[in-house]
């Protein structure tokens, strides 16, 4: 919940590796399930990889790179 601006700020912090643990874990669970759909069967491994990408700031770097492509 919250305003669009608040949600934007929460998502930005999350993707930059500065999010709240509960938000990180919620995203990681969803990513883990999505990866399973695409053949990556180990949910624990999928979630750990997602957390690693989120917490390192790599997720933000990827978003910025995609945005730069137009």
TrEMBL record:
Pfam families, alphabetized: Glycos_transf_3
GO molecular function ontology, one term from the record: glycosyltransferase activity
InterPro entries membership: Glycosyl_Trfase_fam3, Nuc_phospho_transferase
Keywords: Glycosyltransferase, Transferase
Superkingdom per UniProt: Bacteria
Gene3D superfamilies tied to this protein: Nucleoside phosphorylase/phosphoribosyltransferase catalytic domain
Domain Glycosyl transferase family: 1-59
Presence of keyword Transport: no
Entry protein name: Glycosyl transferase family 3 domain-containing protein
Top-level taxonomy: Bacteria, Pseudomonadati, Pseudomonadota, Gammaproteobacteria, Enterobacterales
């Amino acid at each position: 919940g919250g305003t669009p601006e608040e949600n934007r700020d929460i998502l930005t912090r999350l993707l930059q590796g500065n999010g709240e643990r509960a938000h990180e874990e919620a995203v990681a669970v969803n990513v883990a399930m999505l990866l399973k759909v695409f053949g990556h069967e180990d949910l624990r491994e999928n979630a750990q990889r997602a957390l690693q990408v989120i917490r390192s700031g790599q997720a933000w770097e990827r978003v910025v790179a995609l945005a730069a492509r137009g």
